[in-house]
Amino acid sequence: MTVSSCRFSAWRRKIWMKGRRRLKDSSETPGALWHIYLNKDMERVREFLRKEQSLDGAPEQDPIREQGLYLSRKQRQRLLEEQGVQGWTVVQFLGDSVLIPAGAMHQVQNLHSCVQVINDFVSPEHVANSFHLSQELRPNNEEVNYEDKLQIFT
């Protein structure tokens, strides 16, 4: 797919072109490859993952929250074809920050040895979404992956 065939806005085209230049620049080394999916697509991604893992939809098994599967290029393509879900691919270089929207599903592949620095924060615009996400995770708060960092109590 070429830039001209995509319906990118001007700023997206600029970001896309800058990323391509950085990939070709021998002085820059990509450090991580991120795939980020919007929160609104969560149920379709969950359905796809359950099929991939042959889960019968047991409510206690959430393939997204269990973090046990990394979607390959072929799987991401099938997710698009079968469920209509397209994620964002982000190549992270040294010094770059990656901001992930509240509740967005994501996966990261480190391309080189690295140190990961994480700072969780919630913007005022996403407090409601973060609250609902924390409520969704609260029944499973005994699991390490389900830490309630928002700590809103009702």
From TrEMBL:
Keywords: Metal-binding, Nucleus
GO cellular component terms, A-Z: chromatin; histone deacetylase complex
GO BP annotations, alphabetical order: regulation of transcription by RNA polymerase II
UniProt main location, coarse: nucleus
PROSITE patterns: JMJC
GO-annotated molecular function: chromatin DNA binding; histone H3K9 demethylase activity; metal ion binding; transcription coregulator activity
Organism, as annotated: Dissostichus mawsoni
Protein name: JmjC domain-containing protein
Subcellular localization: Nucleus
Annotated ranges, domain JmjC: 1-138
Domain of life: Eukaryota
